[in-house]
């Protein structure tokens, strides 16, 4: 379904993504973990064609993604919607209009300028907001919502594109534990209920373990781990994050831990890396 082969991106002398290869056979939720600077964002940006790869291949459902140009490239960007750490909403615009901007590729410029959207799209936007539990906020300005609610608006905007893949770049890095959980659960449900592939960059391994079917660990631009959450042992985590003096459990866990269950806490303690 998704085939990545020797994908590489260099910035001058710096190799941000270094011959990354992996294959995904069917939709699943994939977490990409690794330290800051490991190349996670650059990988997602190449996949979404926001950044051109230096070399390598990437194909989805047999289509050569890196070779797409013009309209085909824009259609691909619509097929793999991107969600960002900072939500990227228009703060002063109401929630439903923000969501409707997910149809931007389809609407005429003039209609968009005046926020004139087809009735069907408006209904669909409300349905999606309802599904994400935030329909009540539809008329409010985006900036009036909590971070977790704003991220769900961003997810709703992505869903308006009816994407095959959702790429999420550190979607919970700015959120408190409760909001982080709500957002990760929303992404998980979108995979399970709609069968959309989700690829999320997560800088912490506990979140990846909890929500993802497969975890890819990156270090210095390379894949150093690719497996199921239960294969993510202490040794593997050390390899991904490096076993330097500054390495601690804190560097690898989100505050989601604060609301973990006693059973999960026991697992974490057993695996704690200090
Ligand atoms: N636009 C850019 N220009 C130059 N270097 C960049 C650019 N974007 C990323 N890098 C470098 O590429 C490497 C990987 O960065 P990034 O993909 O953002 O990592 P991550 O998302 O894992 O934190 C880092 O060394 C970073 O400094
Ligand atoms: Mg990043």
What does this structure look like?
The chain is an alpha/beta fold. The protein has one domain (2-88, 163-271): P-loop containing nucleotide triphosphate hydrolases (Rossmann fold, 3-Layer(aba) Sandwich). Helices cover 38% and strands 23% of the residues. The chain is built from eleven helices and ten strands. The protein has helices at 40-47, 70-79, 95-100, 109-113, 119-131, 147-160, 177-194, 205-211, 234-241, 249-252, 262-271; strands at residues 2-11, 14-24, 29-33, 55-60, 63-64, 80-84, 165-169, 197-202, 214-219, 222-227. The chain has a six-stranded mixed sheet, sandwiched between helices. The protein has a four-stranded antiparallel sheet with strand order 2-1-4-5, covered by helices on one side. A hairpin with a 2-residue loop joins β9 (214-219) and β10 (222-227). α5 (119-131) crosses α6 and α6 packs parallel to α7. The protein is globular and about 50 Å long. Mean pLDDT is 87; it is low at 255-267 and 270-274. Magnesium ion binds next to α1.
Number of domains: 1
Number of DSSP strand runs = 10
Rg over CA atoms:
19 Å
* Main sheet overview: 6 strands, mixed
Mean pLDDT: 87
Q: Count of helical segments?
A: 11
Which strand-content bin applies to the residues?
15-25%
Report the CATH superfamily: P-loop containing nucleotide triphosphate hydrolases
The portion of residues assigned to helices is 25-40%
State the end-to-end CA separation: 39 Å
Note the run of SSEs as H and E. Answer: EEEHEEHEHHHHEHEHEEHHH
Task: Going across the biggest sheet, name each strand in turn.
Answer: 6-7-8-3-9-10
| CATH level-3 fold name | Rossmann fold
- Poorly predicted parts: 255-267, 270-274
